[in-house]
Design goal:
The chain has two helices and two strands. A hairpin with a 5-residue loop joins strand 1 and strand 2. 45% of the residues lie in helices and 6% in strands. By secondary structure, it is mainly α. The chain has a domain of 31 residues. The chain has a two-stranded antiparallel ribbon. 2% of the residues are buried.
């Protein structure tokens, strides 16, 4: 089983939650909105940082 780096995971979740963050604490990333696309770019960059190549399908889903 793969060990999960808890601190890194929580840091990533916090960073992603800042994209589209609302004043009431909610997160709003409506599909294909600026916030959604920023979140997808953020995720693709994390994939690159891991030494992998992100792939994007026709619906803009990001895989890596």
């Amino acid at each position: 089983m793969t060990d999960v780096n808890r601190d890194r995971l929580l840091d990533d979740l916090r960073a992603l939650s800042n994209i589209g963050a609302q004043p009431d604490g909610a997160v709003d990333r409506l599909a294909w909105s600026d916030a959604d696309l920023a979140g997808r770019r953020w995720y693709a960059e994390r994939i690159r940082e891991a030494g992998l190549e992100p792939r994007v399908d026709a619906a803009l889903n990001v895989f890596g």
